[in-house]
Amino acid sequence: MSSDPIAPVLRELLVRQLEAWLPAALKRSRRATLALAYADGDARGADDALRAVAAQADRLRGSRLAVVVLAAGAADLPARLGPIEAALPADVAVHVVPGGPDRLPVALKAAGAAGAPLLSVVDLGVPTAGAAGTADPTPPAGLDPAVLAAAAGGRPSELLLWGGGPARGALTAAGFPLVAEAELVAGEGGTGTAITLGTGWDRSLEAFKDALWAVDAGLRYGDPADPEHLLDVSRDPDPGPLRRELLAELARSGPRTVSELRRHTLTATVYRSADAVRALTGLVDDGEVVRERESGRLAGDEFISLAG
Fold this sequence. Notes:
Blueprint: H1 7-28, E1 31-38, H2 44-55, E2 64-71, H3 77-86, E3 92-98, H4 104-111, E4 118-123, H5 145-151, E5 157-162, H6 168-174, E6 178-186, E7 192-199, H7 202-214, E8 219-223, E9 226-232, H8 240-253, E10 256-257, H9 258-268, H10 273-285, E11 289-291, E12 303-306
Parallel strand pairs: 1-2, 1-4, 2-3, 4-5
Antiparallel strand pairs: 5-7, 6-7, 6-8, 8-9, 10-12, 11-12
Helix pairs in contact: 1-2, 1-7, 2-3, 8-10, 9-10
């Protein structure tokens, strides 16, 4: 697994998502749960996650954080995590549980995760199969529906899932109101790894998208709205595919507000909501769409429609 060029990127995305989730979770509740479940591999993300928790120790005062780690193929995990765990505040309890993601429902129940913020990270350890963006509610390969139900049991819940294929429909059916996904591809003709986030927090989804475009590892992304083309990772991504998708959305749905098109961009494409404003501005300048007002910055409540 150490030679996998995507593995370190997934760990980086995990850390960034945790850094965004933990402060927000502890503002809502005095207790929260982080669950990390790995089907196989060395589960190196668990080491990185615990270090990220340790870096936010000052935020944990007066709160309780349970960290549940399941790893089917990492016998050395307890020994690896021990030194990191020893440096954690007393308010953080780490539970290393034998088994893979299928044990998540039992582990979360034992940790008392219900009724409080929950972030679950599930690595299915299987290749991507199928096209991103599908609304099929069938869980991807390797994911038990009971695991999805358990991951949706927090108040609120967030799930970061990778491997196994498209999961948008399954996460939506499980009760996650906001879902975004992408396919990470390394090299020419490389095998893709699906990554999906289900959440109820707009800011968390924004943080996920920001993290996707901040990594620097020579990766490309498959966009669920444009699966035929791969996008190079860049802080200023190519707006062409997004412009085409916004035009298609306006053709499908008729006039939409800027806020609605930003939300569509955030959930239906790999782009950030801020990218939608730049794309819409370009479409207005090129005369392909018409805005409701004659001038000024695009406002959230302003309607956009196709030209002609």
